[in-house]
Amino acid sequence: MNIQLVPLHYVYLAFIVLIIAVMIRRRDTTIICVAGIMTIGLLATESLTGSVSGIFNSFIYAVKELISTIFIISIIVAMSRVLIRTGINEVMVAPLTRFIRSPQVAFWGIGLIMMVVSFFFWPSPAVALVGAVLLPVAVRVGLPPIGAAIAMNLFGHGIALSGDFIIQGAPKLTADAAGLPVSSVITASIPLVIVMGVVSTFTAFWILRKEMQANHTNTLRNPVTGELHVNPTASTSAPETTPPSIEQQPLPFIWKRVFALLIPLLFAVDVILMFVLNLQGGDATALIGGTAVLILIAVTLVAHRHTGPEETTSYLIEGFQFGFKVFGPVIPIAAFFYLGDSAITELFNNPLPDGSHGIVNDLGVALAGLVPLNDSIGAITLTLTGAVTGMDGSGFSGISLVGSIATMFADTASSAATLTALGQVAAIWVGGGTLIPWALIPAAAICGVSPFELARRNLKPVLLGLTVTTILAIFLL
């Protein structure tokens, strides 16, 4: 599999390294991403006007790719605002407080529920379901919003999506590319997914618990008044993107009880319909979003009565303001990384050589061609290749490639299945929504935390998990 690398590939790789370095320093990457888009546009079109136009067009492309996520987050936020304002949220989550009584139980409970729902419907609609219901309970018992986001992210976009044992979209793509039965890839992936999940989630929880203990130590209580005073030198998490608290809107308790029962019931019906009608991905998200709009309208009309139509619009405006505020910083960086996949062909009239599968996938193939063919090097290479192809934030765009590369390193069908599963796990954990900021926006937005902060928190657990999983794969080969 010979791929010709051209200057576009090297320039793109240089900007990736620069962006990662800037992210590690926790500085904003917008200007660098714009510079990268313009430079790639200049090389692709050999025209200054073409490269300048490419900046705007790449932003439009990124928005089109992200619009369904922007909408579902905005609508869920709008719905949650009216539920909080009317007090329905308090009544709705009250029964759950009997079971979720500590931050530890909240972390593992949210994570496991997220994982189970994601196995059946994929993580995007699962985030909306789990976050809307369980986040208020988790925060009430002391779990920081960033902790809830980490749990939903690692268990949903990590464990559930990388295994994809029920829907089997990911293993089918990798198995077809490797020329293997889907069942063999699924079987080979089970120990890898388990080890990756255990290492990453326990590491994330251990780091989170240490931070919570440190924050608790730095919280001082006045022995006379009983007031809490936070030590100004104590470390704090990244600023949250949740809007300020909303004024309460009085609602008779009977209506609170009615809606507290009706809303979970409607979402439960959605889950049943997803299963019966085989709705997945975007279709499942659309069903959740439509249901949330109807709930928003119904609650607002009952709570505000004569001003209900106007208040409905106000809640929607607030939701969309929140959504675009959250996604605003992400669009430039997403626009740059989308150029690594199909966007460059659409925006710049296919400047890559014949046989190219996109900049990122070409770099993955080139990486595989630089190393000797043996089991240990093969496992490391598949992990790196999967991670590189996941840099576009999709997770799925490069997993066919890792299946093809796995066959180059494999001596037997069993080792091919293990290598294929390893590449699949690496690609989806990196690109499917645990490390690439715009891919993990759903969990970050629902929990009201910065996606860049969430990606930073996930970095150590995920990298440690990938390291341990790769070592396991070497022993399994």
From TrEMBL:
Q: Does the keyword Cytoplasm apply?
A: no
Q: Keywords on this record?
A: Membrane, Transmembrane, Transmembrane helix
Q: Where is the composition biased (Low complexity)?
A: 232-245
- Where is region (Disordered) located? 223-245
As recorded in UniProt, coiled-coil segments are: none
Regions that span the bilayer: 6-24, 31-60, 66-84, 105-121, 127-143, 150-170, 182-208, 258-278, 284-303, 315-339, 426-447, 459-476
Give start-end of the signal peptide.
Answer: none
Protein name, as recorded: TRAP-type C4-dicarboxylate transport system permease large subunit
- Record the organism: Paenibacillus tundrae
Taxonomy-wise, where does this protein's organism fall, top ranks first? Bacteria, Bacillati, Bacillota, Bacilli, Bacillales
